[in-house]
Write a structure and sequence with these properties.
Blueprint lengths: L2 H14 L10 E5 L4 E5 L2 E2 L2 E4 L5 E5 L8 E2 L5 E4 L20 E4 L4 E4 L12 E3 L14 E2 L10 E4 L2 E4 L7 E3 L3 E3 L2 E3 L7 E3 L37 E3 L5 E3 L4
Parallel strand pairs: 2-6, 9-11
Antiparallel strand pairs: 1-2, 1-5, 3-4, 4-7, 8-9, 8-10, 12-13, 14-17, 15-16, 18-19
């Protein structure tokens, strides 16, 4: 093959965007207890495979030992989590792409630890449940995604809303319990919420949507008002008041 032909082949792979993963040489494995043999592919650049329990690699693939029966077995394989193996059109076996996330607006891909249990920033998508295939388009750029949101924090528009999910993190002083609601009806009564994983390097805003009504027995209804005092208790004995705007 001359230099011109080699250059043409290289140009084809570069233009097409194909990512190549070379398979490892085929091996012959045997089970001496059952006197069986089988072909075995150790994997490639995107997957590592081991023989099933009870089987061992005899050497390069060739004829079975005398009196052994040729069978087909399933290997124990594990894909690799890397950019090459999770890019569309790559050759070879499939990688481990469960932690792959994509952004179709910025045309980017990234890996996120434990992506299935993470809430992602706006525009990013994780692998759908029961997806048959989940790969990064070959014309997207790979990036490092550091702005993930802990599982206890949901995203609502441009505002990250921290939710109280455990009953032990909500406490209310004695009040009237009506239909599962705790009503604060007397001066001095209070309610407390405990939040976790809040950022400490910027301002925090508290948005309240209180329900204020007349005491039970007076008809209820909306459109009433009351004064509310809010304080913040830090993870230290002293408290700190909040300036509301």
């Amino acid at each position: 093959m001359n230099i011109a032909n080699i250059a043409a082949i290289l140009a084809f792979f570069i233009i097409s965007g194909i990512v190549v993963a070379a398979p490892l040489p085929l091996k012959l494995i045997v089970n001496n207890d059952t006197m069986q043999c089988a072909s075995f592919l150790p994997g490639d650049e995107c997957m590592d495979c081991a023989p099933p329990d009870g089987w061992e690699i005899l050497g390069p693939y060739g004829p079975c030992p005398e009196d052994y029966t040729l069978v087909t077995v399933r290997s124990n394989c594990q894909g690799f989590e890397n950019e090459r193996c999770c890019t569309k059109w790559h050759s070879g076996a499939s990688g481990d792409c469960q932690n792959l996330v994509k952004n179709d607006l910025t045309r980017e891909c990234a890996f996120v630890d434990d992506a299935a249990n993470r809430t992602l920033l706006s525009g990013w998508m994780k692998m759908p449940e029961n997806a048959a295939s989940w790969l990064c388009p070959h014309d997207y750029n790979w990036t490092t995604l550091t702005g993930t949101i802990p599982a206890k924090v949901a995203q609502y528009g441009p505002v990250n809303v921290a939710s109280v999910t455990n009953e032990a993190d909500f406490l209310a002083s004695l009040g009237n319990n009506v239909s599962g609601w705790t009503w604060l009806t007397q001066p001095g009564q209070s309610a407390a919420w405990t939040f976790y994983n809040l950022p400490t390097n910027r301002r925090l805003y508290i948005y309240l949507a209180p329900l204020v009504t007349r005491p039970s027995g007076n008809g209820g209804g909306s459109g009433y008002s009351t004064d509310v005092r809010i304080t913040c208790q830090l993870p230290r004995p002293e408290g700190r008041g909040l300036r509301l705007r």
